[in-house]
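Entry 12.
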Amino acid sequence: MKRKIAQQLLEKVKLDYDEIAEDFSMTRQHAWKEFELFKPYIKPGSAIADIGCGNGRLIRELEFDVTYTGVDVSQKLLEQAHMMFPHHHFELGSLLDIPLPDNAIDTTFSIAALHHIPSQELREKAVAELARITKPGGYVIITVWNLWQKKYFKSILKAALKKAVYGPYDINDLFIPWQHKVHRYYHAFFQPELKRLLKKKFHVLELITTESHNFLAICQKPE
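Predicted 3D structure (tokens):
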């Protein structure tokens, strides 16, 4: 993918979430079932980063006293997060430029965010940023949508046809409608592809398809 196209897609992701922020936040008031799988990797007193935090709903699952920082590319979603969790810390930033120091975080989360990053080059940069902020031996927990499902078949077909005719996007890049308001950009990961990407920086301890039909990776930064 050309860098110009990738930058346009990054801007689209930000603008789309700004546009739908309030309504989107209303649909994200509860945690997914897979959040239970995260809890063994959260310890009392640890530093937690939530990259692509949205409205901050991960906070509801933090049973211990931790230091939490939420980061998101959408200012409007951060406003929702501030309203819901006024006593927690949120910053504007992205997976490609995380506003946190090196080796600062015990457990880093990227929940349903990496699939919004266009191009192999930028996805590698995003994984490198997650590694940079995480302490050696710390954990990185990542989920992306598993888009290889029947309900996304039309989006996959449209993407394939557009690629054949115009070719501006990478293979498996989709645009999925949200309440007829925006068509959000996604990269449809294959599970082996995701594992290869993460192994560039992490030990991949577990990679599964969850009950919510997401790919969930539990990773550890080498010491």
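Annotation: The CA atoms of residues 95 and 126 lie 5 Å apart. The beta strands are 47-51, 67-72, 89-92, 105-111, 134-145, 173-178, 182-187, 203-209, 214-220.
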